[in-house]
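An instance as discussed:

___
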Amino acid sequence: MALQQLLVSGLNAVAVWRYSMIAAYVVCFYDWVISLDQEVALIYPAPWNAVKVAYMFCRYYPMAIAPFHLWGLVGNHEQRVCESVYHILFACAMPTFLSAQFILMLRTYAFSGRKTPVLVALSITYLGLAGVIIWVLSKELTLSPLFFVTKRNACLAVSDEPNITVLVSVLQRNTVPIPIAYHVGIISVLATIFDCLNILVVLRHWVRGRDTFGPLGKSFLKQGMLVYVVMTALNALAICAFLRHVG
């Protein structure tokens, strides 16, 4: 019965993941369509710099990889197909995540008055986050063990913990690793630390110099803090989801 519950839970998680991916890309395209006129008026004429490059990448890269991602994560594929692409699918998603964090870093650096210590501290944290992502991508992923019980499935990558196993006597008289996504949970923890560091820098600078801000600075603070808080909340939810089975 425990095994059946585990399998049902895994299949339900895959279904939720598929709906989530479709919803995420629909929102991405919808946001692009309704704000395209503002983007053409404000962003396109602006001179090229690091902020514009980061914005354009963060804006258009998710839409560029959408067909490949939806093909791999929403469709049903044979195991041999997924074995050849699941690392690529995971890798394709990470630039979107890192580009959003990079924009937050640039915002915080500019808001702090372009202070070098702030840039150094944020850069070290950002590079640490990128390093962990590369480590997880290169060594700590395996194909979802749901392929042991289904002939076709989504190409999902999970963290591999070989020391935690369950006996599947009904299926193969063998042991199959239970997917424990603690590696992805570590990524969420570091992302949350990075977001909190950005929030602290912005709040510290605001407390020290809030009387000198004009309408533009106040608007930036209001919108920037909203972005920081939302991203931190999402990362916190991801931590709970990925680490709930650890321990």
User: Anything to note?
Assistant: The beta strands are 77-78, 141-143, 152-153, 157-159, 165-168, 174-177.
